[in-house]
Every structure is written in C-alpha cells, then in structure tokens.
Specification:
Length: 119
C-alpha cells in the first residue's frame, strides 16, 4: 500500500510542476515575463500578481482606451502612447497641473542662472 501512495504522490507532484511550467509559458507567450520580477513562480508575490492579471481585465481595457486616445495626438504613435502610460500611468491626480507633469517628465525649460552666471 505504501508503494502505491508513494507513486501517486510522485505523480501528483509532477503534474503540479507541469501546470506551473505551463502557466509560466502562457504568461511569456503574452509578453509577461514574471520570472524576471519574482524568484519563485509559485510564491505569494507571484500568485498575487497572477491574480491581479486575471482579475484586472477591465483595467487593461481602460489602459488600451487611454493609449488609443493618446494615439490621436499628432506625433504620438502607438509605441509612444504605450510608453507614456507605462511611465506615468493613467491617473493624473498625482500632478496638480500640467506644468508639474511636464516638470516631472523633464520637459520644462529651466533657468539655471544665478548672479548673472549660467550653471
């Protein structure tokens, strides 16, 4: 009886490992390389990230709509729109006004002059 339990346990452990690898391959096919962010693909952090990916479908759709809206600006293509959203997100409440956003992005002209001398 012990031999059957041992064989069954070995089989179940192999199936679990196979499913974990399958999930990792599915994520990588979707350009999500979770293994570069977490060390243990079955750990608590990885599980939370995967749950958020699964449950965050509406959030992803919202980001896609924002990228399409940015894409309507002349000179802003799809890659640039995705880059903008990746850097600053879609919540502009963190910036009091557009000048603060431009300053954060390093797009504001500065005057580095003191006592008539440029720094």
């Amino acid at each position: 009886m012990v031999i059957f339990a041992t064989r069954y346990r070995r089989k179940i452990v192999g199936q679990i490992a196979s499913e974990k690898n399958r999930l990792q391959e599915i994520l990588e096919d979707g350009n999500i390389k979770l293994s570069s962010v977490v060390s243990d693909m079955s750990g608590a952090t990885a599980t939370k990230i995967i749950d958020d990916i699964i449950n965050g479908h509406d959030y992803i759709n919202e980001l896609e709509l924002d990228a399409k809206l940015l894409d309507t600006i002349p000179g802003v293509g799809k890659d640039t729109a995705v880059g903008i959203i990746a850097e600053i997100g879609n919540n502009m409440n963190q910036f009091p006004n557009e000048q603060h956003l431009a300053s954060w992005a390093g797009m504001s002209p500065g005057n580095n002059e003191s006592a008539g001398k440029n720094k």
